[in-house]
Design a protein that fits this description.
single chain, about 70 residues, mainly beta, four-stranded antiparallel sheet, 4 strands, about 0% helix
Length: about 70
């Protein structure tokens, strides 16, 4: 818990967590990639050479709303 305030209901004290990615070849956590998504030849997202940031999630214990932020680390 921290002093963050929920933007939906105003509750103070959100629980920190992360968004899991359990897909094929995943690292176990989701990442944010800068720029609009372009699809490659096989339909997957083109991401080579694009900045990536880990996503941190905070959940409101009262209403369940999630606040998502990206970190400075890849």
């Amino acid at each position: 818990m921290n002093n963050c305030t929920c933007t939906q209901c105003g509750t103070v004290g959100l629980s920190e967590g992360f968004i899991e990615d359990a897909g094929e070849h995943s690292r176990g956590y989701a990442r944010w990639i800068e720029g609009a998504m372009d699809r490659g030849f096989f339909g997957g997202a083109k991401r080579l050479g694009r900045p990536r940031r880990q996503i941190v999630a905070f959940r409101c214990p009262k209403c369940g709303h999630l606040e998502l932020f990206v970190t400075d680390e890849a």
